[in-house]
Amino acid sequence: MYIPKERSLTVWWLYLDESGDLGFDFINRKPSRFFTICVLATSHRHTNRQFAYAVRKTLKRKVNHRRKNRPPVNELHASSLPLSVKEYVYNLLSGCTFGIYAITLNKKRVYQYLMEDKVKVYNYVARQVIDQIPFEMADQQVILTVDKSKGTKARHEFNGYIANQLKGRLAPDVKLSITHQASETSAGLQLADLFAWGIFRKYERNDLTCFELFKEKVLYDGKYLQ
Question: Which of 25, 35, 41, 121 is the most exposed place for a label (fewest CB within 10 A)?
């Protein structure tokens, strides 16, 4: 289990993704009952490189190896991968040093007035996850990468909110970088998607099949609004 204790760490790489949706119309539509935000975190440069290797090798050997006359798949999507492929990519990461932090929102318990402000709900839940990560041990830089699925205004609100929340926890000389990337360009985001999906399924469907593959790497698995 990855529990860093030394301040000798220099850079933290964080990858944040989600699973489920933030729809709240349970009468006319069929949104998910839960919404999970997950952060994949490592402070080891080798592990961060291994993320890219694991995704690249999985795409080559398990996803695209039989697509001779079809365009290649460029990224891993948890919802479309069979369990055997998920197990393959997790095994490639078995010797790596990283932690998984997640919070799952019980959407039916969200206050009515907040249901109309999904950006605020998202940012607040994301902050609850990030609060669990011991940034105080960083001594150079924290790099947070988020899936580029939000509009420009929402991205600015997210960046400002998270930066303000972390300001008091980081040393003055520690740089915080928040970037929004397309998931196909970030192996870390694709892996965060796999972990988020496994945790989400545990709550939404009471399905532990995927979660059992990586549970020893989960350092925080909280539920917000019981």
Answer: 25
Tell me the angle at which helices 45-58 and 187-204 cross, rounded to the nearest 10 degrees. Answer: 80
What DSSP state is assigned to residue 64?
Answer: S
* CA angle, 109 then 115 then 118, to 5°: 115
pLDDT digits over 106-125, tens only? Answer: 999 998 878 889 999 999 99
| Tens-place pLDDT, residues 68-106 | 778 889 999 999 999 999 999 999 998 999 999 999 999
Domain count, the chain: 1
Residue 199 inside a domain? The answer is yes
> Where in the sequence is the domain holding 218, given as residue range(s)?
11-224
Identify which has the larger pLDDT, 4 or 113: 113
Residue 154 host element (H or E): helix 152-166
Q: What is the pTM of this model?
A: 0.93
134-158 in b/e form (b: 16+ CB < 10 A) is bbeebbeebbbbbbeeeeeeebebb
Residue type (1 letter), 96: C
| Max CA distance (Å), the chain | 54
Map tokens 């609850």 to a residue. 128
Q: How far from each other are the two terminal CA atoms of the chain, in whole angstroms?
A: 27
User: How many C-beta atoms surround the C-beta of residue 89 within 10 A?
Assistant: 23
Residue appearing with tokens 């990519």: 89
Query: Helix 118-130 vs helix 152-166: angle between axes, to the nearest 10 degrees?
Result: 30
pLDDT tens across 159-196, in order?
999 999 998 889 889 999 999 999 999 999 999 999 99
